[in-house]
Design a protein that fits this description.
By secondary structure, this protein is an alpha+beta fold. The protein is 21% helix and 27% strand.
Protein backbone atom coordinates (compact mmCIF):
# COMPACT_ATOMS: atom_id res chain seq x y z
CA UNK A 1 0.00 0.00 0.00
CA UNK A 2 1.36 3.40 -0.97
CA UNK A 3 0.99 6.51 1.17
CA UNK A 4 -0.64 8.94 1.30
CA UNK A 5 -3.74 6.84 0.62
CA UNK A 6 -7.43 7.69 0.29
CA UNK A 7 -9.36 6.85 3.45
CA UNK A 8 -11.96 4.70 1.67
CA UNK A 9 -9.24 2.72 -0.13
CA UNK A 10 -7.24 2.27 3.08
CA UNK A 11 -10.24 0.92 5.00
CA UNK A 12 -11.41 -1.28 2.13
CA UNK A 13 -7.95 -2.82 1.79
CA UNK A 14 -7.59 -3.69 5.48
CA UNK A 15 -11.18 -4.81 6.16
CA UNK A 16 -11.74 -6.48 2.76
CA UNK A 17 -15.09 -4.66 2.54
CA UNK A 18 -16.28 -3.50 -0.90
CA UNK A 19 -15.55 0.15 -1.52
CA UNK A 20 -19.30 0.91 -1.61
CA UNK A 21 -19.77 -0.44 1.93
CA UNK A 22 -16.66 1.39 3.10
CA UNK A 23 -18.03 4.69 1.77
CA UNK A 24 -21.40 4.03 3.41
CA UNK A 25 -19.65 3.41 6.72
CA UNK A 26 -17.61 6.58 6.42
CA UNK A 27 -20.85 8.51 5.88
CA UNK A 28 -22.20 6.89 9.07
CA UNK A 29 -19.13 8.21 10.95
CA UNK A 30 -17.55 4.76 11.45
CA UNK A 31 -14.08 6.11 10.63
CA UNK A 32 -11.75 8.04 12.91
CA UNK A 33 -8.27 9.29 12.14
CA UNK A 34 -6.13 10.28 15.11
CA UNK A 35 -9.27 10.49 17.27
CA UNK A 36 -11.26 12.66 14.87
CA UNK A 37 -14.30 11.43 12.93
CA UNK A 38 -13.64 11.75 9.19
CA UNK A 39 -16.51 11.70 6.70
CA UNK A 40 -14.54 12.54 3.57
CA UNK A 41 -13.82 9.54 1.31
CA UNK A 42 -10.70 11.10 -0.19
CA UNK A 43 -9.11 12.13 3.09
CA UNK A 44 -5.39 11.30 2.73
CA UNK A 45 -4.12 8.79 5.28
CA UNK A 46 -0.39 8.74 6.05
CA UNK A 47 1.76 5.97 7.54
CA UNK A 48 1.84 7.66 10.95
CA UNK A 49 -1.96 8.07 11.24
CA UNK A 50 -3.98 5.95 13.67
CA UNK A 51 -7.14 4.85 11.87
CA UNK A 52 -10.13 3.34 13.69
CA UNK A 53 -13.03 1.60 11.98
CA UNK A 54 -16.02 1.08 14.23
CA UNK A 55 -13.65 1.76 17.16
CA UNK A 56 -11.16 -0.95 16.11
CA UNK A 57 -7.70 0.12 15.04
CA UNK A 58 -6.64 -0.86 11.53
CA UNK A 59 -3.01 -1.80 11.12
CA UNK A 60 -1.08 -2.13 7.88
CA UNK A 61 0.25 -5.67 7.63
CA UNK A 62 3.71 -6.28 6.24
CA UNK A 63 4.98 -9.45 4.62
CA UNK A 64 3.66 -12.58 6.31
CA UNK A 65 5.03 -16.11 6.24
CA UNK A 66 3.42 -19.25 7.70
CA UNK A 67 4.07 -22.97 7.80
CA UNK A 68 1.09 -25.32 7.91
CA UNK A 69 0.92 -29.04 8.60
CA UNK A 70 -1.53 -29.97 5.84
CA UNK A 71 -3.98 -32.77 6.64
CA UNK A 72 -5.28 -35.18 4.05
CA UNK A 73 -8.45 -34.08 2.26
CA UNK A 74 -7.63 -30.37 1.88
CA UNK A 75 -6.73 -28.74 -1.43
CA UNK A 76 -3.98 -26.18 -1.92
CA UNK A 77 -6.12 -23.52 -3.56
CA UNK A 78 -7.68 -20.18 -2.69
CA UNK A 79 -11.15 -21.64 -3.29
CA UNK A 80 -12.70 -24.94 -4.35
CA UNK A 81 -16.29 -26.03 -4.91
CA UNK A 82 -15.78 -29.62 -3.76
CA UNK A 83 -13.21 -29.55 -0.96
CA UNK A 84 -12.02 -27.40 1.91
CA UNK A 85 -8.87 -25.43 1.18
CA UNK A 86 -5.77 -25.13 3.33
CA UNK A 87 -6.43 -21.38 3.67
CA UNK A 88 -9.58 -22.23 5.64
CA UNK A 89 -7.31 -23.62 8.35
CA UNK A 90 -5.84 -20.17 8.99
CA UNK A 91 -7.40 -17.51 11.17
CA UNK A 92 -5.66 -14.36 9.98
CA UNK A 93 -6.70 -10.87 8.84
CA UNK A 94 -6.79 -9.93 5.13
CA UNK A 95 -6.78 -13.55 3.98
CA UNK A 96 -7.30 -12.56 0.35
CA UNK A 97 -3.69 -11.36 0.16
CA UNK A 98 -2.25 -14.76 1.12
CA UNK A 99 -1.27 -17.46 -1.35
CA UNK A 100 0.32 -20.92 -1.25
CA UNK A 101 4.01 -21.31 -2.08
CA UNK A 102 4.26 -24.88 -3.33
CA UNK A 103 1.12 -26.97 -3.56
CA UNK A 104 0.35 -30.48 -2.38
CA UNK A 105 -2.21 -32.95 -3.75
CA UNK A 106 -5.49 -33.62 -1.96
CA UNK A 107 -4.22 -36.87 -0.40
CA UNK A 108 -0.68 -35.62 0.35
CA UNK A 109 0.13 -34.35 3.84
CA UNK A 110 2.83 -32.23 5.41
CA UNK A 111 4.60 -28.92 4.99
CA UNK A 112 2.84 -26.11 3.14
CA UNK A 113 4.19 -22.56 3.06
CA UNK A 114 1.75 -19.65 2.88
CA UNK A 115 2.70 -16.01 2.33
CA UNK A 116 1.76 -12.68 0.78
CA UNK A 117 5.30 -12.14 -0.55
CA UNK A 118 5.25 -13.00 -4.24
CA UNK A 119 8.99 -12.68 -4.80
CA UNK A 120 9.72 -15.01 -1.88
CA UNK A 121 7.23 -17.65 -3.03
CA UNK A 122 8.73 -17.53 -6.55
CA UNK A 123 12.09 -18.47 -5.04
CA UNK A 124 10.40 -21.38 -3.26
CA UNK A 125 8.72 -22.77 -6.36
CA UNK A 126 10.93 -21.90 -9.36
CA UNK A 127 13.25 -24.78 -10.39
CA UNK A 128 16.01 -22.30 -11.28
CA UNK A 129 16.55 -21.58 -7.56
CA UNK A 130 17.17 -25.28 -6.81
CA UNK A 131 15.10 -25.36 -3.61
CA UNK A 132 14.78 -29.03 -2.75
CA UNK A 133 11.48 -30.39 -1.45
CA UNK A 134 11.85 -33.49 0.72
CA UNK A 135 9.16 -36.17 0.97
CA UNK A 136 8.59 -39.35 2.92
CA UNK A 137 7.14 -42.03 0.63
CA UNK A 138 5.44 -45.33 1.45
CA UNK A 139 5.24 -47.60 -1.59
CA UNK A 140 3.00 -50.45 -2.67
CA UNK A 141 5.90 -52.71 -3.67
CA UNK A 142 9.37 -53.09 -2.14
CA UNK A 143 11.92 -50.67 -3.57
CA UNK A 144 14.73 -52.32 -5.51
CA UNK A 145 18.29 -51.02 -5.76
CA UNK A 146 17.78 -50.54 -9.48
CA UNK A 147 14.66 -48.42 -8.97
CA UNK A 148 16.43 -46.28 -6.38
CA UNK A 149 19.32 -45.66 -8.75
CA UNK A 150 16.95 -44.73 -11.57
CA UNK A 151 15.38 -42.07 -9.34
CA UNK A 152 18.86 -40.75 -8.50
CA UNK A 153 19.81 -40.60 -12.19
CA UNK A 154 16.53 -39.13 -13.45
CA UNK A 155 13.52 -40.88 -15.00
CA UNK A 156 11.35 -40.26 -18.02
CA UNK A 157 7.85 -39.11 -17.09
CA UNK A 158 4.98 -39.74 -19.47
CA UNK A 159 4.30 -36.72 -21.64
CA UNK A 160 7.47 -34.87 -20.56
CA UNK A 161 10.57 -34.00 -22.58
CA UNK A 162 13.80 -35.28 -21.12
CA UNK A 163 14.54 -36.89 -17.79
CA UNK A 164 13.67 -35.51 -14.38
CA UNK A 165 16.56 -33.85 -12.60
CA UNK A 166 18.51 -36.22 -10.35
CA UNK A 167 16.82 -36.82 -7.00
CA UNK A 168 18.40 -37.32 -3.60
CA UNK A 169 17.09 -40.69 -2.45
CA UNK A 170 17.48 -42.54 0.87
CA UNK A 171 15.91 -45.93 1.51
CA UNK A 172 14.51 -46.04 5.05
CA UNK A 173 12.89 -49.47 4.93
CA UNK A 174 11.75 -52.01 2.35
CA UNK A 175 8.64 -49.97 1.52
CA UNK A 176 9.81 -46.56 2.75
CA UNK A 177 11.90 -43.92 0.99
CA UNK A 178 12.93 -40.33 1.61
CA UNK A 179 13.27 -38.39 -1.64
CA UNK A 180 14.24 -34.78 -2.35
CA UNK A 181 13.55 -33.09 -5.69
CA UNK A 182 14.07 -29.53 -6.92
CA UNK A 183 11.41 -29.55 -9.63
CA UNK A 184 7.66 -29.18 -9.26
CA UNK A 185 6.03 -31.00 -12.14
CA UNK A 186 2.40 -32.12 -11.85
CA UNK A 187 2.16 -35.07 -9.42
CA UNK A 188 5.89 -35.45 -9.88
CA UNK A 189 6.79 -37.78 -7.02
CA UNK A 190 3.92 -40.14 -7.77
CA UNK A 191 4.80 -40.16 -11.47
CA UNK A 192 8.48 -40.79 -10.74
CA UNK A 193 7.68 -43.88 -8.70
CA UNK A 194 5.26 -45.05 -11.38
CA UNK A 195 8.07 -44.66 -13.93
CA UNK A 196 10.19 -47.18 -11.98
CA UNK A 197 7.31 -49.65 -11.69
CA UNK A 198 5.99 -48.85 -8.25
CA UNK A 199 3.10 -46.92 -6.71
CA UNK A 200 3.02 -44.29 -3.98
CA UNK A 201 0.65 -45.28 -1.19
CA UNK A 202 1.44 -42.49 1.29
CA UNK A 203 3.15 -39.17 0.56
CA UNK A 204 4.22 -36.63 3.19
CA UNK A 205 6.33 -33.50 2.66
CA UNK A 206 8.66 -32.84 5.56
CA UNK A 207 10.98 -30.11 4.27
CA UNK A 208 11.33 -27.27 1.75
CA UNK A 209 14.90 -26.00 1.34
CA UNK A 210 16.01 -25.10 4.89
CA UNK A 211 12.50 -25.11 6.36
CA UNK A 212 11.52 -28.32 8.17
CA UNK A 213 7.97 -29.03 9.27
CA UNK A 214 7.63 -28.31 12.99
CA UNK A 215 6.94 -31.61 14.72
CA UNK A 216 4.90 -29.77 17.37
CA UNK A 217 2.28 -28.85 14.76
CA UNK A 218 -0.58 -31.32 14.64
CA UNK A 219 -2.31 -31.82 11.26
CA UNK A 220 -4.25 -28.65 10.51
CA UNK A 221 -2.16 -26.43 12.77
CA UNK A 222 0.13 -23.62 11.61
CA UNK A 223 2.58 -21.03 12.90
CA UNK A 224 4.58 -18.02 11.73
CA UNK A 225 7.98 -18.73 10.24
CA UNK A 226 11.00 -17.57 12.19
CA UNK A 227 13.30 -14.93 10.71
CA UNK A 228 15.92 -17.65 10.18
CA UNK A 229 13.46 -19.82 8.25
CA UNK A 230 12.35 -16.90 6.09
CA UNK A 231 15.91 -15.94 5.21
CA UNK A 232 16.85 -19.54 4.42
CA UNK A 233 14.90 -19.13 1.17
Amino acid sequence: MKFPCRLDKFISHLTELPRTKTKAGIKRKYAKVNGTVITSFDYQVTESDVVLWQDKQLEVLGDRYFMLNKPEGYVCATSDELHQTVLELLDEPVMSKLHIAGRLDLDTTGLVLITNDGEWSHKVTSPKYQKYKTYLVETLEPMTDDALQQLRDGVQLHGEKGLTQPAIVEQLAEYSVRIAICEGKYHQVKRMFAAVGNKVEVLHREKIAGITLDQDLAPGQYRLLTAEEIHSI
